[in-house]
């Protein structure tokens, strides 16, 4: 089989949703200023990114890194064509997201009972009940904010261990039944491998169809990009990623950062999947952001090796 026929099986386009400003920054000690966050968003927009998770509406005493989410969201909404999303743990957070005009709010649900209690202090089914309240409030307010139910620890959990596929799919269906506009699956702790991704995502697509929107992979064991490729092969075309691979999970010991946005953009474009991202601009932004995070762990390979000469012109043109 030729390379051309292999590539033709992949989606023609894919979206990288930048989550570094939320999933990345919430997992490190350094507090990034509101001005720097807004500069990050502006530069990412200039580099071609059109979906950015700008923060989360959680109590500042729990996550001081997210205390300025309302201000950051307000700035993001000034950029034409940018879809700004926020994470919301409950109805109160959802109300703030709607008040701020977020394009999308993501309610996280952990398929691991133990992780759910540690992370959200609720059982998975109690989170489903929260989704019902959020959907009712959204409809009553006439808000245009979309609701995504994100099912985490979908491939296993560092606290609980095994998370059954049947439970992941049950909870995904329950979120849709409770009023989620769309659902996504996350490998919160980096347990996934390409084979398990292909199997789970195929089943998820059978249940949710077009409402299954996104894959979220951590690079704990170096498989994030391989897992993205497996998801691409079954037709998924939106992925979360974090600039410089920053991130993790406070309640998932050993979970490293997300797939690095710049590495993912390079892989997709090298495979003929258009992203709209100018990689050299993204690498320049990476260098700037790393400068704001002295002493914090960062990841990724492209920044060290650079773009291959064989693809420099082609990737810069996308």
Average of the residue pLDDT scores: 93
Structural class: alpha/beta
H and E order? HEHHEHEHEHHEHEHEHEHHHH
Report Rg.
Answer: 18 Å
Question: Please, how many helices?
Answer: 14
Q: Describe the main β-sheet briefly.
A: 8 strands, parallel
What's the shape? globular
Please explain how this structure is put together.
With 318 residues, the chain is of the alpha/beta class. The protein contains 14 helices and 8 strands. An 8-stranded parallel beta sheet has the order 1-8-7-6-5-4-3-2. Mean pLDDT is 93; it is low at 1-8 and 313-318.
Short description:
The chain is of the alpha/beta class. The chain is built from 14 helices and eight strands.
Task: Chart the SSEs and their pairings.
Elements: H1 3-8, E1 15-18, H2 20-24, H3 34-46, E2 51-56, H4 69-76, E3 83-87, H5 91-99, E4 104-110, H6 113-120, H7 124-141, E5 146-152, H8 165-177, E6 182-187, H9 194-208, E7 212-217, H10 224-233, E8 238-241, H11 261-270, H12 279-292, H13 302-305, H14 309-317
Parallel strand pairs: 1-8, 2-3, 3-4, 4-5, 5-6, 6-7, 7-8
List keywords for this structure.
318 residues; alpha/beta; 14 helices; 8 strands; 45% helix; disordered N terminus
